[in-house]
Amino acid sequence: MWTRVAALSSALAVLTACSLPPASPSPPSVAADRPMNVGVGTDIPGLAVLNPDTHERRGFDVDLYRWLGRNTTPQFTPVEVDVIIAQRVNALAQGRVQMVVHTFSITDERRGKIGFAGPYLLSKQGFLVRADFDRPIRTLDDLAGLTVCTQSGSTSYDQLTAGALRDRVTTTTEIGTRQCVERLQRKEVDVASTDQIILHGFARQTPGLKVLDLTFGAQERYGVGLPKNDKALCERITDGLKGFITNGAWDQFFRANFGDLNAEGYKPDPYRLDPCT
Amino acid sequence: MKRPWWVVQLFWAAPLLVGVSCFVIWLLLLGNKGEGIADAVSLLVGTASLVVTVLGFQHSGAARTTAVKPARRPLPRWVFAAVPAVLGVLGGLGFWLVVVKPDVPVTDLVELSNAEEMADGEHAGFRVPGSPPERRYLFVTPTLVNHAKVGDCVGSARMTVTLVRDGREDEPIADRLSGHEVRLDLRGTTREARVLIELSMPDETCRVDLGVTEAVLYN
Predict the structure, then answer these.
(1) Is the ipTM of this structure higher than 0.95?
(2) CA-wise closest residue to A239 among A23, A43, A74
(3) Which of A16, A221, A277 has its CB closest to that of B23?
(4) Is B104-218 a CATH 2.60.120 domain?
(5) How far is Cα A158 from Cα A150, in angstroms, rounded to an integer?
């Protein structure tokens, strides 16, 4: 009799195994109170700056991941890992970091490779000029014929060369926004362009520069980069961001890093954060 | 003390039935529809039939070995197998003939209008194939595509889906995400049903194409 039972059980087990869908790969979430590698920037005024002498970090992004470490459940201790802009996606995909908080625009293209929680900050493309620049610029048409510097491989470059400004400005590229700002100061270019919130950071740090009240292109929605398919971590960070925006911390850190800059246009709707899928 | 024969049998029959029941419930919770439900239920019915049949054989054997003074002539052994088998076949046949109707894939028949280069607040729509549709429910998966390299358009988009049956709008189904299924109840449609999809995106510069990756009519 037991032979028959065993045969029946085996047959059913095989049937069940054949019917089950393949389990989706899901990396393990970070456990409670453990250190978490966070990819950060080092040279973006207002958002993330590393002082090489004191090793102190300052900026809105820095304030954000430290706040998340203290205020999400379970808590985590951020271990800062310097990541250059071009390596943000790879750093996550290769597992060098579990989180990236580094002026990381959420895009549909990037969503195919990594996950995001957010947005926590909004910005459009802006323009930075010398304060003594005497040509009035009120519309995009006024930029015609000017030389614009932007970071190579960035969404800013894509939009300068493919959008409304295509063939109307001369676009030149540098490896970073700081290099563009330095060329602007040396009068080698007329305008530096990238996310307007970053330009405000440079203008605040560098006397003699001003940000134009003019934007273009798609809305940049900064998110916290996460490993793909880690839904639990995504939901945890999204809940944290909602609290960060609603409880006054967002406004406090924004004022601390950008001074009197009007937060309108930069602050996301905490009740309309992206879903974790 | 010797246990009755049926108690011994419960050691394997009960876990088997409970396990298969849980498996079937899990299959149903996955969101199967139409034929999928029938397949899942068939698995449970088939397993139950098997268990009853095996128990029948065991009972027949147990009765033969343990009965000391049979009060009456025992039923032939084959009856214990045949009765449940016939009941199972009749039940399954009735279920298939009365309840189950095959699903009707209509993805290729869906013709969307105003679905290209959609911006925030715009509407697209399509007519549900069939006048009236052949099944009670429509399962549809609307999907957005952002052709630009920039922009967080698809991931942040929400869709509001409204079924219009014979010109009357049903309660809208809000906050649907791209690539997630929507189930619509077409019951009571006498002429035609239409589906309206309103797009909501936080970035006004976003332009996306709406498509339907799957549409199935089912009961």
Answers:
(1) no
(2) A74
(3) A16
(4) yes
(5) 10
Q: What is the DSSP string of A173-205?
A: EESSHHHHHHHHHTTS-SEEEEEHHHHHHHHHH
For the stretch B117-172, pLDDT in tens is: 999 999 999 999 988 998 999 999 999 999 888 889 999 999 999 999 999 999 99
Axis crossing angle, helix A231-246 with helix A249-258, rounded to the nearest 10: 70
CA distance A210 to A111: 34
Spatial CA neighbour of A257 closest among A207, A198, A213: A198
CATH code of the domain containing A110: 3.40.190.10
Of A5, A158, A159, the CB nearest to B12: A5
The pTM is what?
A: 0.73
Q: Which domain holds residue A51?
A: 35-122+220-265
- Which tens digit of pLDDT belongs to each residue from B1-56? 566 666 767 777 788 888 888 888 877 776 666 667 777 777 777 787 777 777 77
Q: Does B42 touch chain A (CB under 8 A)?
A: no
* Residues in chain A closer than 8 A to B47 (CB atoms): 12
From A183, A200, A218, give the residue that closes a domain. Answer: A218
Q: Report chain B residues whose CB lies below 8 A from the CB of A19.
A: 23, 27
